Every structure is written in structure tokens, then in C-alpha cells.
Amino acid sequence: MNQNSSEQLTRYFIGKGFLRRSGVWCAQDPDRSSTAERMYHSLRTEEGWIYSDQDVRRLPDVGHDDQHVRQWRVRKRSLRRLLRYLESQHPRGSILDVGSGNGWMSNAFAESGFYVCALDLNFAELEQAARVFHQSKNVVWLYGDISLNIVPPDSMDAVVLASSIQYFDQVGQLLKTLIQTLRSGGEIHLIDTPFYRDHEKKEAVQRSLDYFDRIGYPDFTPFYHHRTFEELEPYPYSLLYDPASIRNTLKRFIDKDSSRFPWIIIKKP
Question: In the chain, at which residue ranges do the beta strands (DSSP E only) sit?
């Protein structure tokens, strides 16, 4: 892996005419954020997912009184599994973290020796990430829409979507775009996201409708998408962790921090 991977990305962004604001490269104007972006940030605040700089620096570790403590334990375990895999398959490789948010996972990748492009359409959290993790030289923070091909092709060894693919509308087009960013043999990893079978989707959608209505965000429903395994069938995907297996189903009765989400990998030929 080229030791100047971050510098190469920076030169690419400069060549594309991206501007840099508060440590974040902007492929589009953050002052013209979409309704979905503004609503998403407001929703995350309401749900208690927006943290202070001091707390972000400690993630995924949170206090016992944090309302999301169990989710963070699951995410911490998911990260450990993913890091072990990536370190064995792509040591010091390049990672595109799609939906990076406040950057805690991107920073963990960088601390493990990877070069990271942290991408999101939430400028407020990216700005916080660039501020909190400013010491990391292996991370480039990027604000923009991935569908506009803002990441150079054939440049990444892995793409990670951790609890983020549910916020994309056209999953087929998204995966095609992401595959283009991968080098030969690269991989897409989908973690910490619920996936359903087609026959389960209707009930899941209704649960989300009830939830968003209950917390006062019924208008967010069209921006949250319920992913199904059937959507992935055109791609050569496999499960590195299957929560529905007999072994893992039984394990969750004993270990409450075991993930109920699959770890899905899609390899580029």
C-alpha cells in the first residue's frame, strides 16, 4: 500500500475542485443541506446519539447510564471482529467508511494502520470528527453524496457501511458505485444493520412507522429503508456472521451483547 494514500486523496479532491471547511473536504455546499440531512441530525439529537467532543473521543466506550450502552457494546464487538479480518486480509490498506458520522470508527481504523476516507452527508458530525480526531493523519473527511462518484475509482481495499445502508434509497445503484471504488479483490462490509426477508419487511416497516410517529418524526419514514437479503441477490454476497444460525440464536439467550445483525460481505471479482 502506498504510504501517501491520504495525500493522494487530498490531491484528487483538489483536482475535483472540492473546498475544505473546518477540516472537511466538501464535494457540495453544506450550507445547502437537504431536508433529509437536517431532519436526520435533528432525529439523532432527539434519540440521544449526538455526543460531546469528550464523549466522542471515548467511543465506543460509554458510561453505564448511557441509554445506548447495549448498542455500543454490540458495535464494539463488531468493530473488533471487523478489524481482525481486515488486518489479516488488507493490512495497512485503504478503507472507505460510508456514513462515518462522528468518526469514531474511522479513527479506530486509522489507529490500526489503515488509510481512511470517512464519508457522510451530515456535515455537523463530520466537522466534529475532524475536530476531535485532528491528530490522525491517516483519515480524510469527506462531505458529499457517494452517488456522484466523488471517490476515485479502483482506490479502496474495503468499503464499510456500519449502521448506514438503511439510509440509502437505491441500494442496487449504491452497491454498483461502491464496487467501482474498490480495487480488484476488494470487499464491501455491511454490519450493524437489520436485514429482513421479503415476507418480514411489511411488519418491520409498520414498526418503524409507529416508532417515528411516537417520537414526533413521522416525516422521516420515507428516508429510512428496510433492507432485504433479496436485494443483495444480484451480488456475490456471503455471511461472515449469521445471527439466525442455531448456534448464534442460542448464544444470544446467554450473551445479551451478541449482535442480532448479520455481517455481510460482497467481494469484487
Answer: 19-21, 24-26, 94-98, 115-120, 139-143, 156-162, 182-191, 195-196, 227-228, 237-241, 263-267
Q: Residue 48 has which C-alpha cell?
A: 440521544
Query: Which SS3 state, helix, strand or coil, does residue 29 take?
Result: coil
Query: Domain with 171 in it: what CATH number?
Result: 3.40.50.150
What is the tally of structural domains in the chain? 1
**pLDDT at 2 (0 to 100):** 47
Give the whole-angstrom CA distance, residue 96 versus residue 231. 22
| Residues near 239 by beta carbon (within 8 Å), at least 6 away in sequence | 262, 263, 264, 265
What's the CA dihedral at 51, 32, 15, 6 to 10 degrees? 10
Q: Are strands 263-267 and 237-241 parallel, antiparallel or unpaired?
A: antiparallel
pTM over 0.70: yes
Positive or negative: CA dihedral 39, 119, 183, 161: negative
For residue 249, pLDDT beyond 90: no
Give tens-digit pLDDT for 130-164.
Answer: 999 999 989 999 999 999 999 999 999 999 999 99
The position carrying cell 439510509 is 167
Q: How many CA atoms lie within 13 A of 84 on its CB side?
A: 6
Domain that holds residue 68: 5-267
Q: What does the pLDDT read at residue 258?
A: 84
